[in-house]
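Record 1 of the preview.
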Amino acid sequence: MMWRLVSCTLWLFVCLQFLSLCSVCAAADEPDEEVKIEVLFKPEQCEKQSKRGDLVNVHYDGFLAKDGSQFYCSRSEKAGHPQWVVLGVGQIIKGLDVGMMDMCPGEKRKITVPSVLAFGEQGKGPVPPNATVVFEVELYSVSRGPRSMEAFAQMDVDKDKMLTKAEVKEYLKLEYEKEGKLHDDAFYEKIVADIFRNSDGNKDGIISSKEYNIYEHDEL
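->
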């Protein structure tokens, strides 16, 4: 009787150890779905940090985490100009939207993005399926972005529920002037061109209210 009890106890112990090992293995197999942020440089003074809906000017290089090979360089795209992006509305991959929050102008980060927040099971171009990617990001400027309904109403001067390039340009000029920043027309035209490239879905030169709210975020 005693031997049978000892045998059952040993068998139960072995089973529990096996289940515990399986749990560890399963956890090890699960992909890390968190964005990892490493700050490479941060200026001592930071008057404004990036937040959702802000218009940011940024350069970023993309690498495959597996072998370090580079698949994208913004400095070699579009004449090498930094990219204008509205943060947090889906213009870039989710992982970059997350990783570029709370950045200061002049800050540099290394952002590691799991595949589920990057290019997923399908991959894209030189990025293979299920690939973790790493971006080295340098942020140049942060300003209030034209992605709120309040901003739409302010830009839509003639109240026709459509935005022209002239309306968006005038809005941006006023926003920069409020911050005491003056720029030439070429500066604003570059931003407007980027905004329309990302938001003017049918490429008719006008952003409709539907195109403006294409990402269907609550505040848009």
